[in-house]
Amino acid sequence: MDDVTLNFFKKWFISIRPFSLPASTMPVIFGTVLATFIGHYPFHAVRFVLALVGMVILHAAANILSDISDYNKGLDTVPTPASGGIVRGILTTREAARASVVLFIMGTLIGLVLTWYCGWPLLVIGVLGLVIGIFYTLGGKVSLKYHALGDFAVFMDFGILGSLGAWYVQSVTFSWIPVIWAVPIAMHVIAILHANNWRDMISDNKGRIYTVASLLGDKGSLWYYALMIFGPFIIIYGLIFIPRLISPRLAAMPLPFMIVIVALPVALILWRKALRRHHPKKPFDFIALDGATANLNLIFGILCILSVFIYAIIR
Known about the structure:
Blueprint: H1 3-15, H2 21-38, H3 45-72, H4 93-118, H5 120-134, H6 150-171, H7 177-180, H8 183-199, H9 201-206, H10 212-246, H11 264-275, H12 289-314
Helix pairs in contact: 2-3, 2-6, 2-12, 3-4, 3-6, 4-5, 5-6, 6-8, 8-10, 8-12, 10-11, 11-12
């Protein structure tokens, strides 16, 4: 492979910010295994691959679009471990814009193919997710990220819609299970974004950019971050035991989901880093908190998926 080709792939790889890939892949995998092992629908491998690739591509397109917007507004000028290719000087804004358009087109075409397989209701989910992704940073006065709606956007795209869409791709039916059960994973995705916005709070305020972090302030952001990283553990255990206490007719999470507690030490490490944000033990502990939180999202998501497999084996 020549240097030109290697440089090309390097640009694209860095531009999609690979640390954030678990956020896009996890809801698709989770929704798929739920449909297969909880809903007992046949597994369609081709549809799964298309859904997974499409989600990754659209997430990459939205990431690049966000990088362009932040860079043009002067919000993202100093490289961090989780920075994209523009601020690192690897991509120009024009190259990034072309890449984003290409990726949005590719993701849309994959979505249309899946709609042809599964029916028009999937198109509703896809269009809603696409609109949220595009208007995450674009749109001026209706930009979601800059008006404290970024957390809601990632909660929907990389939690609820991703899981529900994956379930529908396999089952061609709707259910509340992939919606409710995906909430804990979605909260960790919010934690990734919040860690990023928390770090950039000062520059965002100067640029009149309003995020949940800038509205809450430093102390409020600390406790909001705690809610996002610890809350999913509480919710999982609630979904396991509360339905069993109320009525046997309610669909309780299988008992194997209790293994998510294995990820708690990772959350505690992140919490300590957050507490030491003003005097970090290592220079990049707080600066790279978003990337570290992505690791929690990955571990927690894998444990949730593993829980479903264990439940299927036990049954």
